[in-house]
């Protein structure tokens, strides 16, 4: 997949580059209590040209729809309704009709265009304006194959989100998860992959063997997971490009809960030997495993810090499930959770400042705390939420929610305010989401 980015200096739209305005920003602490009104009209085209993904006029409408949905789903923006948007001409892309947009109540305006190039690619232009200050805040363009028009839309939404919130981008990313179907005691569980908004969904495995806990490799070319091939619970790596899978640790013992190191060189996992479960590390290419913990309890669910220097994990060595951290070589193990109830499935934020976890006690909730255990906060309050995974910018947590009494689970997301909670659409039931980094 190839996606090129340009500054729109030579794509048929000439415009001066005004000084950046500093007038509007989004309050990222308020969640949906104070979303910013924003206008995102359909994007015009200088000429209607057919492409493999539809003509450029239709692509302009679809790009605007994807941007609208991305920003609305963040909980920080309130897109203006279609009836107030009207038609934008190609000439107005760089010369907005500010009086009209002031009348809609929008504080920010996203305009752009879809243009066919002579080499079979298209350019999607993306402009962000401050409506009341009448200034341009950002401009970017993306040259893509027609098949990748959605990625250009996500990139535009990321540009707007980053400029107005000061937070890192996350819309142009993918999720791998376990797709589930069938009766409660005979579930079919397949690996599946999709864009973060549920688009471009496809299954990676056929359901012949149960799969659990998929996790992306840092380069997103492969997925590590646990599978019951021949009824033996062991760890495999699935190559997304070729569809091939390989066994990571050829041991008779049960191996599970795998995760790549941030540099992709190692896989950390748990192995049960003679009734005792510890955390091990193995080169991602395979080989001898190194034991990192030696406690008599169950040590599992290891997750690296973003710099790879530390590992967070859960252990019941003290009598109940709690969260511990240690150095990447297994030294310096210390408990960091001390609240009521139990703690499971800790995962380190890509920003390094927080650890998300499942809090067990009176139900299952998603929570966060600092790596030293301070500042514990619960983000959800349903009957059974578990398995958190971070967005690439460390701002949103995806997890799965099981409806009481049904045994069926769906994917959900919540931001750090705990206010903006959304269901993530999947064709079937879903569990164990793993949010990948931004696409290259």
Coarse morphology: globular
Percent strand equals: 35-45%
Mean pLDDT score, rounded? 92
User: What is the gyration radius calculated from CA atoms?
Assistant: 23 Å
Low-confidence stretches: 9-22
Distance between the termini: 9 Å
Helix-strand category: mainly beta
What can be said about the biggest beta sheet? 6 strands, mixed
How does this structure look, described?
Helix 1 (56-73) packs across helix 3 (149-165). The chain is mainly beta and 440 residues long. It starts with a strand and ends with a strand. It has helices at 56-73, 98-104, 149-165; strands at 3-6, 36-39, 77-79, 108-116, 122-130, 135-144, 173-181, 188-195, 202-203, 211-216, 222-229, 232-239, 245-247, 254-260, 266-273, 276-283, 290-291, 299-304, 310-315, 322-327, 334-335, 342-348, 355-360, 364-369, 377-378, 385-390, 396-402, 409-415, 421-424, 429-438.
Give the topology.
Layout: E1 3-6, E2 36-39, H1 56-73, E3 77-79, H2 98-104, E4 108-116, E5 122-130, E6 135-144, H3 149-165, E7 173-181, E8 188-195, E9 202-203, E10 211-216, E11 222-229, E12 232-239, E13 245-247, E14 254-260, E15 266-273, E16 276-283, E17 290-291, E18 299-304, E19 310-315, E20 322-327, E21 334-335, E22 342-348, E23 355-360, E24 364-369, E25 377-378, E26 385-390, E27 396-402, E28 409-415, E29 421-424, E30 429-438
Parallel strand pairs: 2-3, 2-4
Antiparallel strand pairs: 1-6, 4-5, 5-6, 7-8, 7-30, 8-9, 10-11, 11-12, 12-13, 14-15, 15-16, 16-17, 18-19, 19-20, 20-21, 22-23, 23-24, 24-25, 26-27, 27-28, 28-29
Helix pairs in contact: 1-3
């Amino acid at each position: 997949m190839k996606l090129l980015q340009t500054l729109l200096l030579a794509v048929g739209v000439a415009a001066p580059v005004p000084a950046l305005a500093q007038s509007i920003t989004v309050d990222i602490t308020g969640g949906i209590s104070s979303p910013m009104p924003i206008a995102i009209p359909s994007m015009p085209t200088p000429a209607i040209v057919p492409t493999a993904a539809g003509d450029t006029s239709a692509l302009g409408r679809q790009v605007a729809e994807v941007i609208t949905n991305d920003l609305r789903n963040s909980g920080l923006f309130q897109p203006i309704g279609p009836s107030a948007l009207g038609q934008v001409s190609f000439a107005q892309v760089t010369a907005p009709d500010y009086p009209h947009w002031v009348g809609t109540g929008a504080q920010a305006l996203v305009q752009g265009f879809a243009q066919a190039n002579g080499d079979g690619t298209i350019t999607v232009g993306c402009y962000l304006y401050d409506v009341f200050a009448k200034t341009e805040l950002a401009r970017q363009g993306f040259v893509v194959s027609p098949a990748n028009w959605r990625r250009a839309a996500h990139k535009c939404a990321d540009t707007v989100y980053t400029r107005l919130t000061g937070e890192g981008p996350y819309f142009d990313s993918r999720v791998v998860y376990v797709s589930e179907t069938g009766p409660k005691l005979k579930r079919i569980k397949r690996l599946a992959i999709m864009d973060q908004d549920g688009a471009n969904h496809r299954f990676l495995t056929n359901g012949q063997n149960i799969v659990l806990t998929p996790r992306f490799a840092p380069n997103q070319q492969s997925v590590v997971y646990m599978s019951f091939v021949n009824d033996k619970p062991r760890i495999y790596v699935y190559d997304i490009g070729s569809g091939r899978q390989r066994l990571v640790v050829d041991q008779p013992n049960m191996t599970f809960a795998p995760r790549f190191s941030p540099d992709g060189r190692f896989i950390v996992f748990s192995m049960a030997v003679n009734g005792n479960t510890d955390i091990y590390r193995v080169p991602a290419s395979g080989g001898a495993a190194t034991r990192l913990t030696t406690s008599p309890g169950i040590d599992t669910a290891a997750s690296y810090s973003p710099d790879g220097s530390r590992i967070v994990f859960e252990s019941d060595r003290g009598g109940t499930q709690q969260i511990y951290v240690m150095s990447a070589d297994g030294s310096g193990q210390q408990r960091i959770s001390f609240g009521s109830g139990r703690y499971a499935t800790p995962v380190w934020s890509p920003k390094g400042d927080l650890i998300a976890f499942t809090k067990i006690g009176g139900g299952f909730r998603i929570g966060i705390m600092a790596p030293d255990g301070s500042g514990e906060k619960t983000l959800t309050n349903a009957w059974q939420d578990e398995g958190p995974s971070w967005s690439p910018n460390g701002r949103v947590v995806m997890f799965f929610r099981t409806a009481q009494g049904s045994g069926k689970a769906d994917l959900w997301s919540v931001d750090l305010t705990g206010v903006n909670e959304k269901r993530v659409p999947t064709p079937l039931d879903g569990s164990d989401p793993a949010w990948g980094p931004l696409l290259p």
